[in-house]
Amino acid sequence: MIMKKLMVIVGMGGGISYATALRFGHEGFTIAMISRNEQKLKTYQEMLDNDGIESEYRVADAGNHSELLEAISSIQSEHTGIIDVLLYNAAAARQKHILEETFEQIIDDFKVNVGGAITAVRAVIGPMRKNNSGTILFTGGGLALQPMPNYGSLSIGKSAILSLSRQISTELKDTNVKVGTVVVRGYVTAEHVKYNPTSIAEEFWYIHHQAGKELSEIVY
């Protein structure tokens, strides 16, 4: 019996996450989705099923360490501990000037923008090391390269995600585990010629599918 590969997406939504689920799903991956909104997760599951893609979901807040860890652990238990690809796409995005932010709000945002990514990576990195295979992906943003005060908290989060991706890439440099981020420098809409979810999903697939692991960062 051939075991299907498994992709876990943290921060499942109808844009980049869904397009990436389609891209990997059409390559034979089962998609495990995690987000806070169960109704939307059910809808995505039905849509993927209509496309012939197997999927499942868990309800969890990416910014809640215990919830997220429990969700990933549950997926691992049902799939003999093997997660082949992790995509962290959760983000707390708000337009607010950095000097108008409260301490509490920045901390809450950071839990989603970065804390959850660390939780997810720590949950999958052990089995990936053991199997000497796997891919860890992060959705980056142009705010990491050109921070904007009016998106102050998110700018901090995207800068940290880029740093995290580089750190994990260094940590796993002597393994076959791939680590990568797509730094999206534009506003994503379905109609945009370049910054549309389908095109961005293709960049994630490229990082995963490349023969080696030379390309770990795509500034898009």
Low-confidence residue ranges: none
**What is the CATH homology-level superfamily?**
NAD(P)-binding Rossmann-like Domain
CATH architecture: 3-Layer(aba) Sandwich
Q: What portion of residues belong to β-strands?
A: 15-25%
Structure summary, number of beta strands = 7
* Total count of domains: 1
Shape: globular
Report the sheet with the most strands, covering strand number, pairing sense and barrel closure: 7 strands, parallel
How many helices in DSSP terms? 6
What do you see in this structure?
This protein has 220 residues and is α/β, with parallel strands linked by helices. The chain has one domain: NAD(P)-binding Rossmann-like Domain (Rossmann fold). It is built from 6 helices and 7 strands; from the N terminus they run βαβαβαβαβαβαβ. It has a 7-stranded parallel β-sheet with strand order 3-2-1-4-5-6-7, sandwiched between helices. The N and C termini lie far apart (39 Å). The model has no long low-confidence stretch (mean pLDDT 96).
Topology:
Layout: E1 6-10, H1 16-25, E2 30-35, H2 38-50, E3 55-59, H3 65-78, E4 85-88, H4 103-131, E5 135-141, H5 152-171, E6 178-184, H6 197-209, E7 217-219
Parallel strand pairs: 1-2, 1-4, 2-3, 4-5, 5-6, 6-7
Helix pairs in contact: 1-6, 3-4, 4-5
Q: What's this entry about, in short?
A:
With 220 residues, the chain is of the alpha/beta class. It has helices at residues 16-25, 38-50, 65-78, 103-131, 152-171, 197-209; strands at 6-10, 30-35, 55-59, 85-88, 135-141, 178-184, 217-219.
